[in-house]
Amino acid sequence: MKNMLENIIDMINEGIISIDSEGTIKSYNKKAKEIFGLIYNQGIGHSSGSIEKGDMVIIGDNCFGEDDGGLEIEDLRLFGVGDIALEKGDAFVAAGVVGSDIGSAVIKVSKKHEDNLLLETSINNYKIKSTIDFMNKTVELSVNHQCFPFKYIKSLGHMVIMSGTTGKVKFYQAKGYTVRREALKDILMGKVFQSKGNSSTAMEVVGRNIFEVHPKETNINIIEFLEAARGKDISYTNEVREINGRPTRCTLMQLKSSGKIQGALLKVEDITELNNLRRQRDSAIASLNEAESRLKVDDGFEKIIGQSESIKAVKKLCKKAADTDSTILILGESGTGKGLLAESIHKKSRRREKPFIYVNCTSIPHELLESQLFGYEGGAFTGAHKEGKKGLFEAAHGGSIFLDEIGDIPQFVQVKLLHVLQTKSFTPVGGTKEIYADVKIFTATNKDLDKAVKEGHFRKDLYYRINVFPIYIPPLRLRREDIYPLIHHLLPEICHKVKVSEKFISAEAIKTMIDYEWPGNVRELENVLERAVNIAEGDTIFLEHLNLKADINSPINHFCIKSLKDALIDAEKTAIKNALEVSNGNKSKAMKILGVGKTSFYEKLKKYGI
Q1: What is the pLDDT of residues 117-159, one digit of tens each?
Q2: Does position 335 have pLDDT exceeding 80, yes or no?
Q3: Which residues pair with 46 in a beta bridge?
Q4: For 487-528, what is each residue's pLDDT tens digit?
């Protein structure tokens, strides 16, 4: 029963710590260990050890002396930092080798904390990159393109150490370094650091004194926690407090038995993601407002939704593409909106009053594709109309034609398309007369055309002809900042389409959608929203209305975690049923197994309908 309750408490998505009146830890669940850094299997992992001469050190510190163990300039001389104007509160990035000459290290300093701070260098044939992104509050260190990103709230001292003998990563900073006493200064001064990775285990703390695990100087007010356990009238509910540089919501309550205080319980909820979501939402709303104000001065590309840097770059290319008659090749995964992009360019071009013809090359049988594109003369083949038929290229005269999935067209059609691109003319199937084609050609594919050319599936000369003006649309997972603007834009349209009143979407659902990978890109996002609009009975779309595949790498779906009260009720019901089953329905034996009295046992049978 005890193990069952411990397992249930471990499943709770809030940190739970309880101590007795002497400060001895009685319970400390898995989530609490994650929040306080007692579980540290983050990243690729490394063995325990300490810094040594010859090791390579890379540092990114957004606030010198603040959350790095009280780092001093003298400490940096360990890996070759010389005389430099570095003051408390400055941000800096640095790289060097332990034991090298003073002044040999590379370092950059920022006092304003406005533009990103970037250091790129090479040490012992290793490509080093250290970046501090002040806007997104991220420090990212990389060695030969192996990245170690770290998000921060206020301040952060981030470090990676490469072994001077093996060339492998021997240390990188991770969440919980305050509790592990692994601040930058500690490690540089030779403190033994603990292992990380799948082989590492969580620190066992039950039975230990609370001050052994959490020194008095750490962020959480442990003294207050212990005073409450000893009887002082201290309690609070959902107070926002900072722990290890992370915002949390804390509840402190005293534990009583027979009217006497036996200890205290602390419940801690990590609200970092909630705060990040709010920032993303506020940023998205600001971006939307900015976009809407720009739309008043119509740029012709209002249907291309997003304010990420990658989409801004796409829009710039679209404006240039609209001013040329060169062939446009649009690249991107399925569902990214290649057809919408082509049509938007057409509508902004001088051909906007002429036809825009969309052709999905995979939806037309290969044997019919040539006649569909270029038309045919009467009697050209069995089943052909006597009067012949005009092709799509001729129908698009003066306008544009969009050949989607061009990577799938057969070789004999590739030859004829190449002729059109070279001469601006074509001959209908069965005909002898050349027809002039004043058509702007858009092509698109989600295939790797370079590979198709090498394998002989796509003509090299045709590839060169269509690859005059390429535009790449990045997948949605690489521009997550566009997800909220897309939801904001699509949701009202979908509600109007399915003829329902306007619906809104919950913060929990938005967070899940921002975290989701979107293999089907914007098309999948539209489908998910349309399904949710149809399913949701009220005016709010919640998480359960989204049909998103669960992350198979996640051991627990934290959105399905029950409250502690409900979890304990389920545990009691299961324990009673198991005891009755083991005792073959003998209630006296079941009571003995459970260790409960007759009155309590029968009350629970009645309560749970067993």
Answers
A1: 999 999 988 899 999 998 888 999 999 888 999 888 778 899 9
A2: yes
A3: 196
A4: 988 999 999 999 888 888 888 888 889 989 999 999 999 999
Give the fold, CATH level 3, of 564-608: Arc Repressor Mutant, subunit A (1.10.10)
Q: Tokens for 211, please give them.
A: 């001050």
For 475, residues 6+ apart whose C-beta sits below 8 A from its C-beta are 332, 333, 336, 518, 521
Instruction: Output the CA angle 196-198-199, nearest 5 degrees.
Output: 75
551-592, pLDDT tens digit by residue? Answer: 433 333 333 344 555 656 766 777 787 777 767 778 887 787
* Separation of alpha carbons 138 and 68, rounded Å: 15
Domain range annotation of the chain: 2-37+202-270, 56-188, 309-476, 564-608
List phi, psi (to 5°) of 32: -60, -40
Can you give the pLDDT at residue 90? Answer: 92
Contacts of 243 by beta carbon, 8 Å cutoff, 6+ apart: 35, 36, 219, 220, 268
Mean pLDDT for the stretch of residues 206-224: 74
CATH number (3.30.450.20, 3.10.129.10, 3.30.365.10, 3.40.50.300) of 2-37+202-270 reads 3.30.450.20
3-state SS, one letter per residue, for 110-166? ECCCCCCEEEEEEECCEEEEEEEECCCCEEEEEECCEEEEEECCCCCEEEEEECCCC
Helix (H, G, I), strand (E, B) or coil at 272: helix
Dist. CA 150–CA 157, nearest whole Å = 10
The residue among 316, 286, 324, 322 whose CA lies nearest residue 135 is: 286
b/e code 370-384 from CB counts within 10 Å (16+ = b) = bbbbbbbbeebeeeb
Euclidean distance between CA atoms 480 and 571, whole angstroms: 40
